[in-house]
Amino acid sequence: MLFLMLLLLLPAESRSQTDPAQCRYALGMQDGSIADDDLTASSQWYESTGPKYARLGRDEADGAWCPAGPLHPSDEQFLQVDLRSLCFVTLVGTQGRSGGGAGKEFVRIYRLDYSRDGDRWISWKSRTGQKVIQGNSNVYDVVLKDLRPPVIARYLRIIPVTELTSTVCMRMELYGCSWHDGLLSYSAPEGQIMAVPGYPIAYLNDSTYDGFLERRLQFGGLGQLTDGLLGMDDFLQTHQTRTWQGYDYVGWRNDSLGPGYVEMDFLFDKQRNFSSMKVHCNNMFSRGVKIFKKVSCLFKPRLISDWEPEPVGITTVLDDKNPSARFVTVPLGNRVGKELRCQFSFADTWMMFSEISFQSNMEVIKPRVIPVHTRLPSPLSTADPEPELSTMLQSQETTPPFIVSWPVDRPDDGSTSVLIGCLVTIILLLLVIIVLILWCQYVRKVLEKAPCRILDEEVMGQHSSCSDTMVVHSSHSNPTYETVFLLDPEYQEPVLLLHKLPELSQSAEDSVLILSNPAYDLFIPTSFPLIGWHVMKNKPISTNVCSGDYAEPDLTQCTPHQGFQSSVPHYAETDIVSLQGVTGSNMYAVPALTVDSLTRKGISVGEFPRQRLHFREKLGEGQFGEVHLCEAEGLQEFLGGVVPLSDPDGRPVLVAVKKLRADASKNARNDFLKEIKIMSRLNHPNIVRLLGVCVCTDPLCMITEYMENGDLNQFLSQRESESTLTHANNIPSVSLPNLLHMSAQISSGMRYLASLNFVHRDLATRNCLVDHQLTIKIADFGMSRNLYSGDYYRIQGRAVLPIRWMAWESILLGKFTTASDVWAFGVTLWEIFTLCKEQPYSLLSDEQVIENTGEFFRNQGRQIFLSHPSLCPPTLFELMLRCWSRDTKDRPSFERVHRHLQEHVA
Ligand code: ADP
Fold this sequence. Notes:
alpha+beta; Transferase(Phosphotransferase), domain 1; 3 domains; 22% helix
């Protein structure tokens, strides 16, 4: 009996208050409990295609909501639903226009915006940062789309998206349940990364948080702590697909937060009587993780009142025996509050939470009563609350047989029979789960025994738990399951993935190189252009590997090179990492033709008389030697007045003179000359202009225009964001329009380089210069120089590479293209909008950055993106994310980037 009681209690403790697998009730479009008045739209074509006709499964008036006029790709039209109270929304169902069979319109893709207060709108994003949701492909099928993460909102807007101008119409339903917690937002210190040698890295950030981040504090939003997903006992594991290790938890390290506790504020929709708070914590003490030692909460009855002085809290009993993750219930003594502030004290090195929920007196709140609702089945297996299924189910035009009726806001009348009924259902469900788990394990074992190749194809063809789309067809009578995509982590060996990637696809016979970088062992077929990585086993590098696909063979591998200055650093040390095993020319797989065409013709600027350069001061030190500020006497005449300089009246003009150091090697000298040749051919207002050279005698010099404000990195890092404070205190500052203008200028320079098919390969703020009028010019063609030089003096088995700016394919495949420049441009934008106060991925070591590169390559949603800089407008951050698309074809062109930025500037 006791066992039975325990069993009955188990589900309650292993499930969150709002369980996304259960919270799938129709919220009232179809059954009309969402009133016509609560449906609005940005526009409607006719009265008969107004928002009130957007009800899924119904065919009234002209049969759907259609926004006015044909929809253009740049249009933003929306259908808005007011749910009257906060709801936890887990699914969206869409359907085209029926119009008694005459309708032809539907919405192929859409976006979703949501708001909790009707004021601040947030764009929904999938866990991998995708905003668009696949909609319908015909007018009659209902397509149900799981929202991962779910949305907690009162208002939702569906925004049809179209790539071509077309007429769109839609019907829809929202599915979910009431958000009983009533929590509007929580704030917490930013979650951290656990990197312990010998263990996989755990990323314990709150990745779906929809608020703001400032000085490492997240505030004004909700995220993973309220997504209904409970973490597992081992925090590295997760049920979620397309995520990373540590995904389920938000975690903090004790010594990183001064006071020994994590302080969190919780803001609610209304004043409530709180009976308890439940915190789901990890307790893997063998890894230094424990539940909190004590918690103390203060209450604020109203938003404008002070915190009441008496706290409520508990001291917990710590557990060194049982490593299970668990809910810790904190009684809150029925205190009244609109806002709570709780301090959770560390009991060990780490504290990790996966969910926090509040139980409050429901008398205070009166949500809209939704009489009876249909609930969609949870996605196949309840053991995995978020399996990703593509499911073909039967017609939705009539009531589908799998939908069960269930009241959302069930009154708790204490009826024993209801309780027993629920418990029995839970037991039955548990049994079903156990059977399913056993069955899955059996199937997995069978699959494991299958040959690798078949396995691969089988997985592609059979794993149905990978898509979050459910299509309800009008013609089938039984639910059948369709598979779409591979995502079982067991089958994600890079070599297998490579077979699937079009641009990387290889024949099965290709042998495999194992990269010798200790940071990650990656299996790559030998015909990949990974020239120069050390071969650890299998076979030595073959001639075909040495010659690769590129114009220049890797001579370092084929004929060992002697006598160069391997110690010469190329970049600011902190920005660059040495990749052992990466060698010279393989890293420079850039169109040699362009380079040729830029260098073939020789230097196209004149020899400036050296004696007319008068040294003023040292500006800096580069890889070739010092950079001096000089007066260039008579430069205006020397240039024939073609280049307007700031001092046109014949007086000495200030210039920057880069000198090749006296002890430079022959190769360095050649590189220097080649950089001169390239620069002399470039002519654009946002590229540093070469004005003259001194190459007839040593030391070789290049004379460029002087940029008074030095490089952009140090310029921005010495400034703050413009505000009344900076004005009042005379603090050097930059405004948002300044930053946008700078970004647009860099994109303009890059657009020019791209038009020449020229790849820069080292775009970063440190390589952009700023003049007195805030004109930005791209400089430093240092890396590009090497592609055609065949000169690898600085490498000798070690390459110095700016990995934090590099696209994954540049690091893994040595592939540098305009698309990888676009990636670096995204990072440069990020630097600009963080005012260069932080290095990209500052929390990651170089090895972790490279590991992350592997994640970009695998693209299973575990890659870490640079965070949204607080100064950066959301659309610009979206642009950055697009620059970091895995597939080069998904990255925007510089043309597009420039257009986008120009719009911002305008
Ligand atoms: P390298 O590319 O060889 O490493 P740089 O061209 O970056 O060297 O020059 C080193 C430093 O000299 C820069 O960081 C910058 O501060 C300064 N500098 C270089 N060129 C100019 C210039 N045209 N105007 C003003 N400062 C310059």
